[in-house]
Write a structure and sequence with these properties.
Length: 286
């Protein structure tokens, strides 16, 4: 399901988890995220060999979510990410499923993923980074909100921007490590005239329009309002679970995904509530 958006710029939506990107340059390949199943990693690497380009490889992780970082090490290339990703990876348990809960992530639906050795990115940055592998730089930009280490990849030459989990509509968002006010400010940037003639690539659903950007913002505003209504009182996890179930009809759900997406909302809303409304509580990684 690889799609060529422009000459030498591709997206791949055929693997579970996240939407992948590949930019073919004379110096080498710049890759956006990685598959997480071993067989998909082998398939993707084989596909990349046939794309041509130079011999070097850079892999960019758009954030630290396990769906997009499980396969990073197996891609066997230099990894770039925001500095916020480093601490997340270093604190991860070495055994999958160690957290003992279902977060609504994609990787949780699959067995036999093998052992994982987490490896922090070799190159990190704080606010901006430019890759000069041709005449027009590829710009990496820090855009917090979905998570502390969330970034965009702006391909200036073609006006294509990879925004990761900033826009996941019509799926429910991942909230456990989110900051909704920051996320809304990020979406305001994406909705500005600067990006009206861009192709926007969601890390979950592929090409999205400004309409999806607007709907994503509406979902987040509604969630924030509901959480603020709960306030600082003694809210139980059962209350949050009931809220999550009531929110499912706001999303365009595949019938086979209802349980997964309910888990995503339950886990994310509960962790978000603990972090932002009960700050003394311990938190966990998304």
């Amino acid at each position: 399901m690889m799609q060529e958006l422009f000459p030498n710029l591709y997206i791949e939506q055929g693997y579970p988890g996240v939407v992948l990107g590949a930019i073919v340059l004379p110096h080498g390949l710049v890759l956006i995220d990685a598959p997480f199943r071993p067989e998909d990693i082998r398939s993707w690497r084989s596909t990349l060999v046939n794309l041509g380009g130079g011999v070097d490889r850079l892999l960019i992780n758009l954030d630290a979510h396990m769906d997009r970082t499980l396969g990073s090490r197996a891609m066997e290339c230099t990894v770039i990410a925001h500095e916020g990703v480093v601490s997340v990876l270093r604190n991860r348990p070495s055994t999958l499923k160690a957290q003992g809960v279902e977060t609504g992530a994609e990787w949780e639906l699959y067995e036999n993923l093998g052992s994982v050795r987490w490896s922090p990115p070799e190159i990190t940055f704080t606010e901006h980074m430019k890759i000069f592998w041709n005449d027009a730089p590829i710009v990496l930009e820090y855009h917090p909100g979905p998570s502390n280490g969330a970034i965009w990849v702006n391909v200036l030459e073609h006006k294509v921007v990879f925004v990761g989990d900033a826009v996941v509509y019509p799926q429910p968002p991942f909230l456990a490590q989110a900051n909704i006010p920051e996320w809304l400010r990020t979406l305001e940037i994406l909705a500005s005239p600067e990006y009206h003639d861009y192709l926007i690539i969601s890390g979950r659903t592929g090409l999205v329009t400004q309409k999806e950007v607007e709907k994503q913002a509406q979902v987040l505003k509604d969630l924030q309002s509901r959480l603020e209504h709960l306030g600082m009182g003694a809210v139980s996890e059962a209350t949050i679970a009931e809220l999550a179930r009531g929110l499912l009809d706001k999303f365009e759900l595949d019938s086979g995904r209802a349980n997964q997406y309910e888990n995503r909302l339950k886990y994310g809303l509960w962790r978000y509530y603990l972090r932002h409304y009960r700050s003394s509580e311990d938190t966990e990684e998304d």
